[in-house]
């Protein structure tokens, strides 16, 4: 860090947990309290190593395949949502299911079902293999085409073009999605755009906060796990501004050479990263020579999503 001993940490606002992540973790915790361990969770409840390990220690068992869930068990679907086939399979096997799918992802699923009934095919903008994309694509048996970038748009072969609609993964980079959307509109001028911006408010807010932060600092640290799409996008956004940017899963990953000659250190966290990790990074940066911490002005998020029936504290 800068030898003048005046290095400061500048915190992005908002950062860290969003309402959908809060709710998903609450669902697993309430299920553990109410029904006792083990509680089975399909896929990591949210993409954060610390959160998953913490719940694992408390009796959550994370699985990818429903064959690994014993009869009569309680099962939670992760915040990313699941394909219809998984939903039906869980019903068939008689599991007690609590769905922790983020309500903003559910909104996309509902839109897909509604337009499908009206004869629409879909182009989905998202990352191949991401569980949210698999969940949304899996709402239909066919007629939903994934594009990851503008080049993919040229390869899409829908059965018809009169009724085409776009949906997007909720955790994309706003700018990247806009670029791909422009290519989609160019090729299919009649296409129906996403209902509102499908990209969730929390993803948008965190990216906007990093856009504000990046030009004011010498380096940006993003707290988030490698599997977290929205955390990766925060690092991308910062790098687009020409600010060196690194993503860390926890404070031990910080490297002294990153901060040589750096005066102002920007810090943010993905929507699935708990605040305790941010605090540990601040502690480590102070030990490395940072003196002060200030928070940029930003949007205050007040959204809360209710728990499913059967898990509410009064139920």
Structural class: alpha/beta
Low-confidence stretches: none
Q: What would the average pLDDT be, to the nearest integer?
A: 95
Fourth-level CATH superfamily of the largest domain: 4-hydroxy-3-methylbut-2-enyl diphosphate reductase, catalytic domain
Tally of contiguous helical segments: 10
Can you describe what's shown?
The strands form 3 sheets. Strands 10-9-11-1-12 form a 5-stranded parallel β-sheet, sandwiched between helices. The protein has helices at residues 19-35, 49-57, 84-92, 103-117, 131-137, 150-153, 174-187, 201-213, 229-240, 275-287; strands at residues 8-11, 39-42, 60-63, 74-77, 96-99, 121-125, 144-147, 164-168, 219-223, 245-248, 264-269, 292-295. The protein is an alpha/beta fold. The chain has 10 helices and 12 strands. The chain has 3 domains: 8-17 and 201-295, 4-hydroxy-3-methylbut-2-enyl diphosphate reductase, catalytic domain (Cobalt-precorrin-4 Transmethylase, domain 1); 19-101, Rossmann fold (3-Layer(aba) Sandwich); 104-187, Cobalt-precorrin-4 Transmethylase, domain 1 (3-Layer(aba) Sandwich), CATH 3.40.1010.
Question: Can you give keywords for this protein?
Answer:
Cobalt-precorrin-4 Transmethylase, domain 1; 10 helices; 17% strand; five-stranded parallel beta sheet; Rossmann fold; four-stranded parallel beta sheet; 315 residues; alpha/beta
Please sum up the structure shown:
The protein has 315 residues and is α/β, with parallel strands linked by helices. It is built from 10 helices and 12 strands.
